[in-house]
Q: What sequence folds into this?
């Protein structure tokens, strides 16, 4: 015998009031609603987002990435505790690429930052990223807006620097920080190409004990390498700093650098124009996502896709001919009103 | 009084035979057909591409980029002349971003490589890139296939390293070369971020006269910077070479490096797998292009787009709500069979 559990949902007003009242439980529930794959939750989630939108946007959004082993969790914990001691409220959203496969998040992900998670000024939440293109983007973005409406001053979005999610994260944050280790040669190899050039700052972590000298050297080399790149459009030159998350050294300096960045961007107008561009991009990404989703979930397309892919791969038919075959299947069916 | 000129078209057989017979005039005409914006030319162009496909794919495809002033034309001319002296047949396709605005190509673009253009072993052609997303990609790709079927051993695709086209070009070539100048600091600033990491080799041009010492220094610095990057997936470490296109020095070494790359990639199987991935990507790009094109050229979407964009930019409505409004306009109309 099977039971059907109906997920408990609140009204739009209840979610919105809870979020604005800084009720952590309601914030969590609203995030679960936004992340829901259930079609029936879409409209409710959309209504909540629309209502909280005027209260969002006031935080500073920071993306943090780095290879596994760079000490991201320890760093974010130290950084978050420091911010909390400065009376800042911090929300940490972690995007784990492995969660794309299971549909949930890695077990114990939250407990990685146990101390921070128990800080009344902090909110730590693994962000489930859907398996589909654009999914990561969209859900994390909405979660960020909910946290902002709930009065968090700083939103930290953590990704592992080996996947596809960094470009998406870069597209929703104000500041992008790359965490590295000394001994660049080997450790760097896990970082995806292109990520270094996206960074607004690089921090060499684990600059402690025997490792201080190597870290300072890595700092110098990285700074040199970064000078070979063109500056950001805004004229910002990425800096390289060192820190020890376990010893809590260098943390304050990182925060000061971020504040300097924020100040400069606001004066120059880039802070606002960047956010506006990100909003527009969000709209077009959403459109693109739905168009593709509609196409690739079409029954006829699905049944022919892998055969045609194989034909194209082995150069039996031109890619363009295969594409047109699939497109005509899709549009013919749509025009029949199915 | 107005005249209507009917463009003269040939039959599929005539195009195909002309191309296979290495008839330069017919090759040119076939490229014009492929680049045509006329809907009536699409099927004919598709049929030609499909017929020549079995004869394509045998060339080595090289992408060359660099900021204006790096001496791309002079380099390609010297490089092309060298290859011709080695009994290679070379086709040079130049993509000029400014041609996206006028719909044609910059006047005199072809004459920039006059000596090469008059070499019986060479074929120089400015590639008209449509204004629309995916246009650059698709037309240049098909033009490349036509040249291959016409027996060109090496296809060189030239872009200016300041625009959007480099990523597209990277996606259709086997080897990607970045041309630079000594005195990296200033000159580099015109290069778009991310391009350096795409390069399989960097060549410091104008290493002649007083500039030799500076060029050697730039070579060393760039090589150092590149070592900070992870290697390509294939395990290839990008090299930095110097050359003087006007003095024809260093050209042979560049060609030898490219041959080394080709050999290594073929032995390791990356040459083939890269081409297969590119073919698949081409199919999906074509699909994406048509879906987007269909959407953004929809009358209702067009009439509401700029108002909604403005609403989103100023945060009056959430991006996701605006996207959904546009999507429902589009799909409702399509379902009525319009």
A:
């Amino acid at each position: 015998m099977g039971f059907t559990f109906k997920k408990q949902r609140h009204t739009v007003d209840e979610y919105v009031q809870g979020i604005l009242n800084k009720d952590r439980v309601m914030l969590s529930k609203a995030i679960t609603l936004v992340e829901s794959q259930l079609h029936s939750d879409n409209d409710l989630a959309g209504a909540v987002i629309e209502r909280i939108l005027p209260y969002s946007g006031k935080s500073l959004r920071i993306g943090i990435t780095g290879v596994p082993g760079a000490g991201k969790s320890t760093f974010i914990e130290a950084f978050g505790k420091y911010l909390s001691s400065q009376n800042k409220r911090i929300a940490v959203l972690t995007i784990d690429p492995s969660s794309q496969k299971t549909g949930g998040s890695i077990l114990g992900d939250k407990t990685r930052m146990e101390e921070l998670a128990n800080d009344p000024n902090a909110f730590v939440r693994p962000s489930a990223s859907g398996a589909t293109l654009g999914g990561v983007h969209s859900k994390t973005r909405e979660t960020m807006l909910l946290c902002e409406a709930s009065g968090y001053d700083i939103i930290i979005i953590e990704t592992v620097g080996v996947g596809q999610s960094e470009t998406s994260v870069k597209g929703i944050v104000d500041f992008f920080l790359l965490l590295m280790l000394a001994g660049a040669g080997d450790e760097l190899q896990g970082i995806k190409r292109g990520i270094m050039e996206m960074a607004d700052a690089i921090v060499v972590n684990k600059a402690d004990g025997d490792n201080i000298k190597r870290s300072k050297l890595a700092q110098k080399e990285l700074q040199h390498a970064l000078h070979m790149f063109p500056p950001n459009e805004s004229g910002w030159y990425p800096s390289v700093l060192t820190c020890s998350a376990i010893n809590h050294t260098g943390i304050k300096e990182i925060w000061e650098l971020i504040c300097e960045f924020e100040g400069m961007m606001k004066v120059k107008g880039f802070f606002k124009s960047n956010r506006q561009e990100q909003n527009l991009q969000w709209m077009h990404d959403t459109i693109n996502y739905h168009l593709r989703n509609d196409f690739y979930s079409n029954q006829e397309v699905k049944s022919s896709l892998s055969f045609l892919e194989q034909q194209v791969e082995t150069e039996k038919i031109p890619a363009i001919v295969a594409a047109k075959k699939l497109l005509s299947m899709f549009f013919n069916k749509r025009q029949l009103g199915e």
